[in-house]
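Standup notes
- DV: blocked on the single-chain target, sequence here:
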Amino acid sequence: MALWKDQYGREQSGPDPAAKEPEKTASTLVAVAEPARTAPQTRPDTAAGSKESVIAAGLTIEGKIEGTGHVRIAGNFKGDVHVQGNLTIESGAHLTGGVRAHTVVVGGELEGNIDAASRVELLQTGVLNGDLKAGSLTVAAGSRMRGRAEFGWDEKPKG
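- DV (later): unblocked, structure below
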């Protein structure tokens, strides 16, 4: 007497070969682990879907950065940075040039002017040698600045 029928309709007896647990192979384990690795990694300070370019520590680059997106400098950069996004200068990094960005966070050293930023943060390790023009300014104890600062003024023409 048959206990069940296989996929082709033939009667089978004994333990169901399909009921036994499938062998775990490397491909099975990779397929299980794959969704966890592909989860998007986002930084809390970057908006969803925006890109961040990084100049790594130990690199020295000279030129000009323009465009949309965020920029993080951990090495040395000589030139102007004009981005429609955020600029972060990491502790130990050095930037020589003018800056125009939405938000500027200075943890390293900036030799140049910051113009038309909506927000500027000088971290404890930050050094700014230049003028600053921003909507708001946050200064941490221990940071240093040499230059002129204008912040909190509405730049819209009155009329």
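- Follow-up: The radius of gyration is 28 Å.
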